[in-house]
Amino acid sequence: MWQPLSASPEWWGRALKRFSLLLFFLGLGPALVWSEALTPLTDLQSDGRQSRQQRIPLLLVFTAENCLYCHRLKKAFLLPMERSGDYTTRVLIREVPHDQPMSPVTGFEGEALAVEDLSTRYRIRVTPTMVFLDAAGQEVAERMVGLSGEDFFGYYLEENIDTANLALQQR
User: Fold this and answer.
1) Any bridge partners for residue 139, and if so which?
2) Pairing verdict, β 112-114 and 104-106
């Protein structure tokens, strides 16, 4: 039954619960509950040191908040990889907010940078773009731009991680 805006707090509480359930069953609930944030990039010097010590590549994932493909990439591939723990000895994954160009980042040499500087250095034009780097910031595998062919995307991502690891092992 319809209630006026002056309804009791209990009525509003029940209404909010019902609305939340509706969102959940429409498929929007997990998106509201499940965080889509990967480990953010803040310090390339520290990440480079970790990459060098573990002899694993650094994967920079350039994303934008309004990029639907970025959200799909994270949800379908990168978040499960990061959360499983199975990739901690194979790749360091860091998210770079391409749509926040003035966000501060510490560079490989300890210098103060902005995300815009990284986007320029690695010629990032669209999101998502994934760049595979060694501890000094040099690309060691073919970059992946966009999200196409999701059926085979996981295979290509695995291949690039293997290629990057092989490049590091041969140095």
Assistant:
1) 133
2) antiparallel
Nearest Cα to Cα of residue 146 among 161, 124, 115: 124
36 pLDDT band, cuts 50/70/90, is confident
Dihedrals φ, ψ of 85, to 5°? 85, -5
Work out the number of other CB atoms within 10 angstroms of the CB of residue 32: 10
Has residue 18 got a pLDDT over 50? yes
The pTM is what? 0.79
What is the rounded distance in angstroms from the CA atom of residue 65 to the CA atom of residue 95? 11
Of residues 46, 105, 165, the one with CA closest to residue 121: 105
Cβ contact 157:78 at 8 Å = no
The pair phi, psi for residue 64, each rounded to 5°, is: -140, 145
**Cα gap 37→141, rounded to integer Å:** 24
22: Cα separation from own chain's centroid: 28
